[in-house]
Amino acid sequence: MTNQTDTQTNAAIEVDDLVTHYGTTRILNHVDMQVNTGEIMVIMGGSGSGKSTLLRYMLGLHQATSGSIKLLGHDITKISAQEMDDLRKNMGVSFQGGALFNSMTVGENVCLPLHEHTNLDENTIQIMGRMKLSVVNLGGFDDLMPAQLSGGMIKRAALARAIVMDPKLLFFDEPSAGLDPVAAAELDDLILRIRKALNTTIVVVTHDLDSTFRIADRITVLDKGKILMIGTVEEVRNSDNQRIQSLLNREARHVEINADEYLKELTGQKE
Amino acid sequence: MLKTFTEKLGKTTLRGVEELGYSLALLVESFYWLFFGFRRRQAIKLPSIFAQMMHIGIQALPIVAILAFAIGMMLAIQGIATLKTFGAESQVVLGIALSVTREFAPLIIGILVAGRSGSALAARIGTMQIAQEIDALRVIGISPVRYLMTPAMLAMLVMLPALTFFADLIALFGGGVYSSLELGMSLQAYADRTIEVLKIDDITQGLYKSLVFAVIITLVSFVNGFSVTAGAEGVGKATTRSVVLSITYIIIADMVFTFFLTH
Ligand SMILES: Nc1ncnc2c1ncn2[C@@H]1O[C@H](COP(=O)(O)OP(=O)(O)OP(=O)(O)O)[C@@H](O)[C@H]1O
Ligand SMILES: [Mg+2]
After folding, report:
1. Span A246-271, pLDDT tens digits
2. How many domains is chain B built from?
3. Distance from first CA to last CA of chain B, Å, rounded?
4. How would you class A16 by CB atoms within 10 Å of its CB: exposed for 0-12, middle for 13-18, buried for 19 or more?
5. Which residues of B touch A96 (CB under 8 A)?
6. CB-CB contact of B106 with B210 (8 Å)
7. Which listed residue, A106, B91, B141, B234, has the most CB atoms within 10 A of its CB?
8. Residue B20 is assigned to a structural domain of this protein
9. Closest by Cα among A113, A103, A147, A119 to B51
10. pLDDT, tens digit, for every residue of A67-119?
11. Burial of B240 (C-beta count, 10 Å sphere; 0-12/13-18/19+)
């Protein structure tokens, strides 16, 4: 595909035939996926299905074995480090544990991207940081250290840091993990509000079904490194695929046992 | 039995080679950022260098003073006792001066800093790694090497020679105190004699060594810190491993260095 068609299809993120390995183990297996501009795409799937892995590759944290990943029309498997740096100014990420820098205050954390990427004067930076903190209802907490925050506050502070540059792309890994239902719902509202205000394209990895149905425009279902289905909330809900239904109904996974492999596993043999 | 042994040996060797390659890449990258960082608008920030220098250098001064003084005394005690058997105890000044400046000061400082600051660096980087703070830096567009390693490397390169020189002075003083008590020579005479026998080369030789040790400690700490994968236990292991490896490499490098400098 050429750049021309990208703009026509309006895709902010385009993953094309992506294959990835950790060591010699293949994790993602010919993954194709598109996220449209302004869309909230939720990636779900069982534990170990490769959700976080797909996210990490979209963030350019690892080198793909083959395939391409286009963000805002730039193929990140091919661009230079300098171009990647520039692209990153349009990307915000909120990691599962928040990943706030422990040696800095909440305010310094939020302002770090501004310090690194802009030439704004200190006052402006401070004001912008406080504004983002108040967006996530953490106004006045800028002088605290991350260790003094609760789990939900850490996630919101991480979100403030992720949106401080007003990114076009926003990524979340398990936003509701470790939060009580109320805090999780608050975070979902925040995600929706941010999309509404800035028309941000958002990718969320989660296995929280309630949260998925609240925020998703479309859902990508991963299974063992392959895409099982991509569709709207309704389409996924109404799917008659066995695996998707068991995922939605939280059924325990049915493990297929191959007698030979099981024996090898037990005796510790590897091929 | 033999197969598992050779297998293990192979794996260990492979890991060693991999780590060596990784270390060299990190070394190159940390200097790349130092000299070319401003071009990519990622210049090194002075405050982070000073923060590292405080920890590595200034805060180590008391313990360095105690260690260096004790080593100077120890060398004097040993030297006088040994030389007495030849009736040559007046030569002790030469012995202390050379062994302190060429050997003991750089070595002790290297080992001390590896234990004190190398371990702290490995633990800090390892903790940041498992908390995904390193990933967070990268997605913000900040090179972790530039942001964390280059300042530490610079601070080490400045502070290790500085501490070594400081240890030179204190250890020589320690040796002088004991010698003057034991041999009844005045501190002034001891100092004069030391200046007479010491060549500038003896001191610079020790300082060069400390530069090499600085690079070793920084690289080993960061390689181990960046490689942490599994939890708090992983951080503990990486910390221990980095101290043991740093000290091992320091002593081996010291031996090689000494061999070439005395030939
Ligand atoms: N750094 C790594 N090195 C080697 N293998 C890894 C690494 N990270 C993940 N894996 C493997 O890749 C596979 C997919 O992991 P991933 O973390 O993407 O799953 P996930 O879908 O996010 O699962 P979860 O819902 O449990 O977070 C797993 O089999 C895992 O063991
Ligand atoms: Mg995951």
Report:
1. 888 876 555 566 777 777 778 876 55
2. 1
3. 44
4. middle
5. 132
6. yes
7. A106
8. no
9. A103
10. 999 999 999 999 998 899 899 999 999 998 899 999 899 999 999 999 988 88
11. middle
Q: How much is the pLDDT for B40?
A: 66
Enter the DSSP assignment of B30. H
Range of the domain at B53: 45-261
> How are strands ordered across the β-sheet holding A11-22?
A25-36, A11-22, A66-71, A74-75
Q: Which residues of chain B have pLDDT under 70?
A: 1-2, 38-43
pLDDT in tens, B37-81: 766 666 677 888 898 999 999 999 999 999 999 999 999 999 998
For all residues of chain A together, what is the average pLDDT?
Answer: 88
> Looking at residue A252, what is its pLDDT?
59
- Within a 10 A sphere around the Cβ of B258, how many other Cβ atoms? 15
Ligand 1: nearest atom to the Cα of A56: 18
What does pTM read for this prediction? Answer: 0.86
Domains present along chain A, CATH in parentheses: 1-90+172-179+201-271 (3.40.50.300), 91-166 (no CATH)
The predicted complex's ipTM stands at 0.85
User: With a CB-CB cutoff of 8 Å, which residues 49-108 of chain A face chain B?
Assistant: 56, 59-61, 81-82, 84-85, 88-89, 91, 93, 95-97, 99-102
* Residue tagged 């480090």 (tokens): A81
Nearest to A81 by CA among B126, B29, B124: B29
Low-confidence ranges of chain A (pLDDT < 50): 1-8
pLDDT of residue A2: 43
The answer to the question of residue B4 being in a domain is no
Pocket test residue of A42, A43, A53, A243 for ligand 1, highest count of atoms within 8 A of CB: A53
Contact assessment for residue B208 and residue B253, using Cβ atoms and an 8 Å cutoff: no
Question: What length is written for chain A?
Answer: 271
Q: By alpha-carbon position, which residue is closest to atom 24 of ligand 1?
A: A47
Assess if residue B209 is contained within a domain: yes
| Rounded Cα–Cα distance for residues B91 and A221 (Å) | 81
Looking at residue A7, its pLDDT comes to: 46
A51 lines ligand 1 (CB under 6 A): yes
